[in-house]
Write a structure and sequence with these properties.
By secondary structure, the chain is an alpha+beta fold. It folds into two domains: 48 residues, no CATH class; 83 residues, Translation initiation factor 3 (IF-3), C-terminal domain (Translation Initiation Factor IF3). It has four helices and six strands, in the order H-E-E-H-E-H-E-H-E-E. The protein is rod-shaped. The chain starts with 11 loop residues before the first helix and ends with a strand.
Length: 148
């Protein structure tokens, strides 16, 4: 019984007697019309299941949404600093929301914002895919990129 052999259909009293004779527990593993039981150490089984769940939680990674804010007339060095930060976010597996804020007369040049977002999309084409296309909401233009 302890070596994993199958017994077939056994009365409950006989199964309990075999488990107590082995010094182990009788554990129901499949509660169907004909329940399936095993003779094993229940404490050890619970401990192993707990360890499996902890390992699964450790390997699990939540995907955060990071935001990068820019202006439509951003300088080249500032753009490079922002793209370096975006590279870090993509390496960690995070999504990035690129936001362009327009102030004052910049509202008359919304095409500059679209050009900037197209440049970002082109620069990160092999590293990330566009999850939400650029859209304008008031004074803000946003686009969401997700790592590949």
């Amino acid at each position: 019984m302890e070596d994993g052999e199958k017994r077939g259909v056994v009365p409950l009293e006989e199964a309990l007697a075999a488990a107590s004779a082995a010094g182990l527990d009788l554990v129901e593993v499949a509660p169907n019309e004909t329940p399936v039981c095993k003779v094993l150490d229940y404490g050890k089984m619970r401990f192993e299941n707990q360890k499996k769940k902890a390992a699964n939680r450790k390997n699990q990674r939540t995907q955060a949404l990071k935001e990068i804010k820019m202006r439509p007339n951003i300088d080249t060095h500032d753009y490079e600093v922002k793209t370096k930060a975006m590279n870090k976010f993509f390496d960690r597996g995070d999504k990035v929301k690129v936001t362009i804020r327009f102030r004052g007369r910049e509202m008359a040049h919304m095409d500059r914002g679209m050009d900037l977002l197209a440049r970002v999309k082109e620069d990160f084409a092999e590293m990330a895919k566009v999850e939400f296309e650029p859209k304008t909401e008031g004074r803000m233009m946003t686009m969401v990129l997700a790592p590949r």
